[in-house]
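Weekly modeling sync, notes
Attendees: S.R. (lead), two postdocs, one rotation student

Agenda item 3: backlog of single-chain predictions. S.R. asked that every request posted to the team notebook include the full sequence so nobody has to chase files. The rotation student volunteered to paste the first one in as an example of the format we agreed on. Action items at the bottom.

Example entry:
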Amino acid sequence: MKNYFILFCFCLSLGLSLSAQEEPNKNKPLIKVEISTPRLQVGMVEVRVNLEAQRENSALEKAPQIYWEIDKEQYSFLVTTVSPGFYQGNLLITEEHPEGEGKIYLLFPASSEAQFLGDLEVDSPGGNSPFLYPKKEYQIYKTSKTNQTSQSKDKNPSSLLFLKSDFNEKIVALEDGRIVEIFLSSKGQAGYIRIQRLRDGFTWGYHNILPIVDSNHQKNWALGDVVNEGDILGTVAFSKDFSPYLGLELFEEEESGIKEHPPINYLAKGKYKEETISILPRTIPMMLSEEISSPKKISFGLADIVFLVYVGFFLTIIKLVLSTLR
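Predicted structure, as returned to the notebook:
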């Protein structure tokens, strides 16, 4: 009998503890949060907060503070909508804001405890793979010979990284940005795209690719287009004298000139293996000014003139024959 009594008391205490756990905390509002984007470089972030179960609470009629906290610094949202239990705020992220991952909080005037709403990350350069299907191991072409290089943007950058690829392998944008230079290939000739980050002067160059149609807008990529991280830029071109490769460059435009950065320092972490070859591919992309320059005048050689005379004579004979038949 004593054992049954102990068992009864145990079950009763367990049931009470479970019911206490299931009972919601009436002092803590139930929050429904919508954040327009959890990650960006620059742009507007919108937060909507809905305290569904607390609309009758008069304390919620006052505008709360919504802020983004990173590195112990707070950046306040502009609260644009204040309704009992519903709030909306905006924060414009610019180059002045620090890069990294922070947290968004909600704080009421009469409360000393802020409530966590969600994460917000401001992108720093790099951290991704340029291939649609990231590789387990990346192979880098290097050479023991000195390659002719130049600090000028219209020459082969000294920091150009040659990644072994597969022919027709799809190449994607490493980050959001805007196309500042593009050379659309013709008849299989390799092209390139340079994309500048929206946040700063960092520019990625993708060389030895065949730019393709922008799948989002069903048109060819063009100068000035905004590219999203992960968008397919093109495919690796066929190389006559080399194995298929992707040439990556990264530079930053400063007042003093062009500052090059080793692309490998900004790629996704992974295994990298070097392969030494006799000489590296030579890539000298055209500048935009050369692409849109006046077309060259058409010149005719002696063979062209003889051919045109022959065609004219032949057409004259046909005309005479037809007039005789009539």
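Discussion: group reviewed the output briefly. The chain has two domains: 24-122, 137-291.
Action items: rotation student to repeat for the remaining queue; S.R. to check formatting next week.
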